[in-house]
Each structure stands twice: as structure tokens, then as C-alpha cells.
Amino acid sequence: MLKSMVQGETRKRLDIARIGEIKSAARVLLTLHGGSGTDDEDLRKAIAAGINIVHINTELRVAWRRGLEDGLAKRPQDVVPYKILPFAVESVKQVALSRLRLFNGERDPGRRPVE
Q1: Residue whose C-alpha is closest to residue 50's, from 23, 11, 73, 26
Q2: What burial letters (b/e) apply to 22-48, b meaning 16+ CB within 10 Å?
Q3: For residue 49, how far is the Cα from the chain centroid?
Q4: From the first residue on, what is the mean pLDDT of each consecutive set of 10 residues in the chain (115 residues)?
Q5: Rounded distance between C-alpha atoms, residue 65 and residue 87, angstroms
Q6: Angle at CA 76, nearest 5°, toward 71 and 80?
């Protein structure tokens, strides 16, 4: 993901027609590597065009980092990981749930873009 994507300023765009052409020609399962930072509507269209698996590792890493920073800010005196790390886990969980909803065709009006 580009810095502008991490900051929520831009989103990656996909060539949906090309994905459809590849799916038609290849007739195999297709994986979108580097799905993090992609426009939500493009992800919906890509799945409809034949993408079977979407990788969003960077989005999860960014969520983990932000959750950890949040935990450190909210518990500045704590030094034990089990009091700080739940913030990171919850942040990753929220992004994962949001993406699973999107990939399953559900609209998620409460989803905030990764900043």
C-alpha cells in the first residue's frame, strides 16, 4: 500500500474487465494478491468477475499497529503485554470482520477507511 492509501487519501483501482477476461480464459481459481488499499466497490466487482481469494495482509498490519498505538496511548503506564495487546487484537478483528462482510456481498456502512 502506498502511504496515501494508508492515510486514506487514495484507493487502489482494478481493471475489472481484464479480471473477467482472465477468469474466462484460465477457468481456475483466481487470487488477488495485494488487495489492501483497494476501493471497496472494485473489490465487489472483482469478486463478481471471478476473483476467489483476496489478500489484505497490509490492511491487517496497519490495523494491528494502530490498535497497539491506541493501547499504548490509553494505558501509558502499563508495561505488561496482556493489558496493551488486546487493543491491537480488537483493531485487527474489526478490519477482518469488515472485509469478510464486504467479500460476502454485505454492505458495511459503519466501516471506516484505513487511515
Answers
A1: 23
A2: bbeeeeeebebeebbbbeeebbbbbbe
A3: 19
A4: 85 96 97 95 97 96 97 96 97 97 78 48
A5: 10
A6: 70
Of the CA atoms within 13 Å of residue 80, those in its CB half-sphere come to 2
Question: Running DSSP on this structure, what letter comes out for residue 112?
Answer: P
Q: Round to whole Å and give the CA distance between 65 and 83.
A: 15
Q: Which residue has the cell 502499563?
A: 78
How far is CA 90 from its chain centroid? 14
Polymer length in residues for the chain? 115
Query: pTM of the predicted model, to two decimals?
Result: 0.83
Amino acid in position 80: V
